[in-house]
Amino acid sequence: MSEGPIVLLSGGSRGLGLVLARHLLASGFRVATFSRKPSDALDSARAEHGEKLRVMVGDMADADSLRPIVSEVERDFGPIEALVNNAGIAHAGLLATMPPAEIERMIAINLTGALLLARLVVRKMIVRSRGSVINISSIIGQRGYSGLAAYSATKAGLDGMTRALARELGERQIRVNAIAPGYLETELTDELTETQREQIVRRTPLGRLGTAEDIAGTVLFLLSPASAFITGQTFVIDGGITC
Prior knowledge:
alpha/beta; globular
């Protein structure tokens, strides 16, 4: 049996990233993922999937750590067929009182890191004239939300990057798309109060928060031949809250 294509996934140690890694592996992909710290969940997945999963340590905010990651994957694992820019952080708070260090770190991880990682990966894809890039954005980048101005700016930047990079790379048959999740049952929404959660659910036509599994299906679709003529798009998956 031939080996599956390789997906480089940032931030695969927990939350949405961990679920994406598991779904990709179950669908026959080989996954290389990195995060700032290893996790027991990834160790368990590696024990289950063996050589199909490569786990590394790296920080999206540290530009110097990204090049060795891409080089190691290409050298020791194989050609990167797809990149999923998933790593991200969110600090809530009014912009007027938010510490500059928190703003700078959000930009470094959510936007600058995604740009630099994509730069390294697409240079490899251009040579092969194939590949797919998926950026995990957010509905906050499209609609905004009080107390999330800096986070919203980083995700809006990802959407802009998606459209521009799709135009740059289309001639080389490299597709670039984004997914903008709504409110998901992840660590980020664990910080919501019960009242806030109830308000979000009431405003959502499908009557619930989303799950990481709701996002995984679209990632798999965008990596499949069924999406071969789709590029430069942002897919909103939010249960209808922004409709």
